[in-house]
Design brief:
alpha+beta; Jelly Rolls; 5-stranded antiparallel β-sheet; 3-stranded antiparallel β-sheet; elongated
């Protein structure tokens, strides 16, 4: 099984910034000429997650609201005592989302639903540059 690797560079605003990775994921699949297999999209680090959503403004806001209610930025987290920073909630939010998503590749394209996109959610409390890893197995 051959494995192909690609990277997507993303600059984010932090604070649960949601970035649509789908066009660049499709580009990676097409540029490697993969007709069938799977693509694993992975966010190295522990304050960002990868998932699928319908990438639209209302849902992006709903994700922000949901995560803030569940794991608020201003909460009291032991992580702050360990590292003297403010992103304990970022680690927990990212752990909830998960660092990767696996997408089938069928007929040379990612097999996503009509309203489904692969997104990065950067939960950190500051702007970041992320290098997203894509491994395609065919």
């Amino acid at each position: 099984m051959p494995v192909k690797t690609a990277y997507i560079s993303v600059s984010t605003k932090g604070n649960r910034d949601v970035v649509d990775l789908t066009p660049r994921l499709r580009q990676a699949v097409h540029s490697h000429g993969i007709e069938a297999g799977i693509a694993v999209v992975f966010a190295p680090g522990s304050t960002a997650g990868i998932t699928t959503i319908e990438y639209e403004p209302g849902l992006k806001q709903d994700i922000d609201t949901f995560l803030e209610k569940l794991i608020p930025y201003g909460g009291d987290y032991r992580h702050h005592e360990t590292w003297h920073d403010d992103n304990g909630s970022s680690h927990l939010q990212a752990a909830l989302i998960g660092p990767q998503c696996t997408v089938p590749i069928v007929d040379g394209d990612v097999a996503l639903g009509t309203w489904q996109q692969v997104v990065l959610i950067d939960c950190d409390t500051r702007a970041r540059k992320r290098e997203i890893l894509i491994q395609m197995i065919c």
